[in-house]
Amino acid sequence: MNAHHDNTLPAADRCASALDAPQAIDGGDSLTLLADKLRPLADSGRLDNVVDLLALASDLVDLLDAPMVEKLGALSEQASGAAWTLANAWRAAQAQGLKEAQPPGLTGLFQLFRDEDTRRGLALALRSLQGLGRQLRNQQEDYAAP
Question: What domain range is 32 assigned to?
């Protein structure tokens, strides 16, 4: 890896043409050695996967322009914020539940409905479910038989 390379020769003297293969350390043709190492991959079809992966990486580089990167950044920020909020709410509810000797009874549950934060959370959950239902209805209409 850290082998010494003689780079003192001018570029024209190093390689007379693009088809001249440089010599490997052991004196063999380096392109032949590379072809020998790639032969099992090509025979098994796994080299196609490597080429597909390189094509995918190239496509991603082409797609990831500045506006797309900004959109992905904003999306990841929103997702991490939502996950943080849900995790905090879950931990708080779990801690409160562990403090209680027994789960609340029916009257205790109705008392929770008096709390403004409980109603706000339920409204958020119900609105989210309403939005999901609306999307499902639209999908059914899109895929309904004519």
Answer: 22-63
Has residue 5 been placed in a domain?
no
Q: What is the pTM of this model?
A: 0.48
- Plot region of 27 (φ>0 → left; ψ -120 to 50 → alpha; else → beta): left
What is the separation of C-alpha 50 from the centre of its chain, rounded to a whole number of angstroms? Answer: 19
The sign of the CA dihedral 32, 35, 37, 40 is negative
Tell me the per-residue pLDDT of 92-127, one tens digit each, with 9 for 90 and over. 999 988 898 888 899 989 999 999 999 999 999 999
Please name the residue ranges forming H helices in the chain: 11-14, 30-44, 46-63, 66-99, 106-114, 116-143
Residue 17 forms part of a structural domain: no
d(CA 146, CA 144): 6
The residue out of 35, 63, 91 marking a domain boundary is 63
The reply to whether 1 falls in a domain is no
Specify if 136 maps to a domain. yes
